């Protein structure tokens, strides 16, 4: 069965009004999208900022009464004083959306040995290090440049017999990669209970035995330390938590920080200088990774 979608271009202040009017007209779901390439990189805590130019889309059943909906939406625009909403009505053909979504994910190689593979795809290199990971509720599938930077670094170092802490573990992809690359044990730390569930599920999917990994919500043991610590979060929290994260790294251990824009790297480096020697800063698609050694 086909569907109808109605799209309106507006500003953040008017988004709630257009969302309400589309829902009142019978929309089954309303979504927000960026009209231009204007990403929101690091929102403040407990905020959900929208883009300067936002597209509001309502999805309707095919028999929705357009003769009623269109003038209602246009009237709302007049009330808001918005003269140009670029209103578009489109027919959306029905598809096997699950299959469409699954087809968009392919195995990705990081470094020389490591592959991240969806469970429904064939492993491309049976002799490689294959991490089976399905996209889920928690962030981290390897497709984002920051995750890729961390995976490439883990593949480049000797993880054999090391201990690893994945700070802000999300899906657990970094810590699990470290285990598959030879680390003895991993501790994942996150504030989101969904991250705990996702990391546990992904560890089981990769046949990691429970004695080799643990996932913790704060607060955690203050004596916790590891040979290798990876923290792929955001520049603000990385700087604010520099003292906390630094304590997790053993003397002589290695730290990789990501989730950092190129322009933010200097401030993060300054926050960690009291405890670390900075070894490298690598950039990928406007994002950066900082690698440092504990003094």
From TrEMBL:
Catalytic activity annotation: L-lysyl-[protein] + 3 S-adenosyl-L-methionine = N(6),N(6),N(6)-trimethyl-L-lysyl-[protein] + 3 S-adenosyl-L-homocysteine + 3 H(+)
Stored CDD domains: AdoMet_MTases
Gene that encodes the chain: prmA
Annotated InterPro entries: Ribosomal_L11_MeTrfase_PrmA, Ribosomal_PrmA_MeTrfase, SAM-dependent_MTases_sf
PANTHER family on file: ELECTRON TRANSFER FLAVOPROTEIN BETA SUBUNIT LYSINE METHYLTRANSFERASE
Cytoplasm is among the record's keywords: yes
Record organism: Marinomonas communis
GO cellular component labels: cytosol; ribosome
Lineage: Bacteria, Pseudomonadati, Pseudomonadota, Gammaproteobacteria, Oceanospirillales
Name of this chain's protein: Ribosomal protein L11 methyltransferase
EC number(s) per entry: 2.1.1.-
GO molecular function: protein-lysine N-methyltransferase activity
The protein's enzyme class: transferase
């Amino acid at each position: 069965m086909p569907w109808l979608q109605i799209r309106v271009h507006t500003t953040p202040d008017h988004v709630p009004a257009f969302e309400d009017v589309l829902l009142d007209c019978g929309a089954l779901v309303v979504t927000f999208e960026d009209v231009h390439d204007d990403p929101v990189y690091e929102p403040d805590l407990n905020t959900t900022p929208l883009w300067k130019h936002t597209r509001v889309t309502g999805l309707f059943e095919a028999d929705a009464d357009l003769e009623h909906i269109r003038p209602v939406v246009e009237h709302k625009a007049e009330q808001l004083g918005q003269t140009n909403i670029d209103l578009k009505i489109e027919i959306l053909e029905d598809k096997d959306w699950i299959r469409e979504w699954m087809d968009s994910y392919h195995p990705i190689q990081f470094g020389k040995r490591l592959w991240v593979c969806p469970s429904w795809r064939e492993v491309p290199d049976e002799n490689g290090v294959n991490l089976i990971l399905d996209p889920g509720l928690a962030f981290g599938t390897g497709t984002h440049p920051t995750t890729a930077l961390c995976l490439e670094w883990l593949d480049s170092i000797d993880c054999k017999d090391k201990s690893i802490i994945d700070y802000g573990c999300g899906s657990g992809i970094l810590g699990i990669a470290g285990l598959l690359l030879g680390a003895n044990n991993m501790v994942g730390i996150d504030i989101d209970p969904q991250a705990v569930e996702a990391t546990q599920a992904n560890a089981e999917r990769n046949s990691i035995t429970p004695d080799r990994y643990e996932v913790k919500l704060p607060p955690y043991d203050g004596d916790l330390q590891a040979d290798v610590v990876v923290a792929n979060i955001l520049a603000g929290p990385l700087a604010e938590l520099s003292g906390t994260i630094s304590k997790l790294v053993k003397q002589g251990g290695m730290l990789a920080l990501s989730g950092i824009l190129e322009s933010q790297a200097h401030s993060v480096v300054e926050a960690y200088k009291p405890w670390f020697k900075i070894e490298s800063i690598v950039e990928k698609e406007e994002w950066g990774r900082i690698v440092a050694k504990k003094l």
